[in-house]
Design brief:
Strand content: 5-15%
Strand order of the largest sheet: 1-2-3-4-5-6-7-10
Largest sheet: 8 strands, parallel, barrel
CATH class: Alpha Beta
Distance between the termini: 32 Å
Structural class: alpha/beta
Shape: globular
């Protein structure tokens, strides 16, 4: 992920949101999800006594599509107040743009970025009001709010020097606490995607790729007393703090598949508490294929490995990878596919903000394949300022999502 580019996009989109909302005072104004770097959620037992989508460990080991998997996926969607089908979501898009195209997503995703000066709690007044205003706007449009917590990149993407710095981590935890408090005040379910990319960097830098051996500042927080002062403890604290403060929050961890095999990553993520979350955050690519294929790619597209433009085998391999990870994780957690690229199929790479890709086309036309592997939601959004969005896709997302809903949606498994 290119943090600098995506943070700039976040600032621009925030400015658009504030101007349309009167500095956050008009909750009925347009909404912009922020396409900042990276891309979790951690609830197991809701305050209303409902199961948190099968996040308890008693359901481990059911990987054959049995009754507990069905119950876990359906229960999570029911808890969100949505129809019993694979849900469709968007991020990094204004509600005004959705209205223009009559797009009605089930979920709208927004980034929460930074620690300290300039971080998300400072984007509106009073502190943290940005979260409340965006959640209210999203709910008023009939969607479930989703927040991607992306604070760990505040000292630089892949820089883990802050996690054992008590000053930095006190600020970090104060913002996490504030996030959960604000979500609790909303009084309804909210999805949270916990620190995308960070867990991959932890795995690559921890001794023996073991998060329990990487020191971190954790158990000086009252909600997390007794947890280990390690990177593994960070994940466990994110879950435990959420359970205590915002029991209706539903949390999920995003594994980084560049950090090892499905078996290795499953073991790594169990250590940080991913097995006690409410769902798994899966990713395909947040960059349009054409952005990487052009002769001179923009900086945000100068990574990845070919083939960039997927065929059916690539999509099936991606499904198999997350299914293998889910099995190793040792539970029956539902899956949410997140920040998936939005380009339009083409025989040529395309141009800036109009690059080709086929993820929207394939995933919405073949949504039942995803439902069959215990997916409960497909969430699409550009991962950078040069990527295709609903404003530049020629109506592709509006058309295909409308056709998907007209068919009744994909069944949950």
């Amino acid at each position: 992920m290119n943090m600098c580019i995506r943070r700039c996009v976040a600032v621009l989109m925030l400015s658009a949101f504030l101007s349309s909302c009167g500095g956050g005072g008009n909750q009925g104004g347009g909404f912009a999800g922020l396409p900042v770097p990276g891309g979790g959620n951690a609830g197991a037992q809701g305050g209303d006594g409902q199961s948190g989508g099968g996040s308890g460990e008693g359901s481990a080991g059911n990987e054959d599509g049995g009754a507990s998997s069905v119950a876990a996926t359906t229960a999570l969607v029911t808890r969100l107040g949505k129809p019993a089908r694979v849900l469709v979501g968007l991020g990094s898009s204004s509600i005004e743009q959705m209205k223009l195209q009559d797009i009605r997503p089930d979920i709208v995703d927004t980034y929460l970025v930074g620690v300290g000066a300039g971080a998300w709690p400072t984007w509106n007044s009073p502190e943290g009001a940005y979260l409340t205003f965006t959640a209210q706007a999203i709910r008023a449009y009939g969607a479930v709010p989703m927040y991607t917590l992306y604070q760990m990149t505040a000292v630089g993407e892949g820089n883990l020097s802050g996690i054992n710095d008590p000053v930095f981590m006190d600020k970090y935890w104060a913002q996490v606490r504030l996030m959960y408090q604000l979500i609790a005040n909303l009084g309804g379910p909210v999805l949270i995607n916990l620190e995308p990319d960070f867990w991959g960097f932890v795995a690559s830098q921890a001794p023996g790729r073991d998060a329990t051996r990487l020191p971190a500042s954790v158990n000086n927080q009252p909600e997390c007393a007794g947890l280990p002062n390690t990177a593994a403890g960070i994940g466990q604290c994110l879950v435990q703090m959420g359970r205590q403060i915002a029991p209706k929050a539903l949390v999920g961890f995003p594994p980084s598949f560049w950090s090892g095999t499905a078996a290795e990553i499953g073991a790594q993520m169990r250590a940080v508490g991913a097995g006690k979350a409410d769902f798994i955050v899966a990713q395909t690519s947040d960059r349009d294929a054409g952005c990487r294929e052009v002769a001179s790619p923009p900086a945000e597209c100068q990574n990845g490995s070919a083939p960039f433009y997927w065929d059916e085998t690539s999509f099936r391999d991606s499904q198999r990878q997350i299914s293998d990870y889910r099995a190793v994780l040792g539970n029956d957690l539902p899956i949410l596919w997140w920040q998936t690229s939005m380009g339009v199929p083409s025989d040529t790479p395309g141009t800036d903000q109009h690059y080709r890709d086929n993820h929207v086309d394939y995933m919405l036309r073949n949504a039942q394949e995803y439902g069959d592997i215990h997916t409960f939601a497909l969430v699409f959004s550009p991962g950078g300022s040069h990527q295709t969005s609903i404003a530049t896709d020629g109506g592709q997302f509006a058309r295909l999502s409308g056709q998907y809903l007209a068919r009744g949606g994909a069944a949950l498994k």
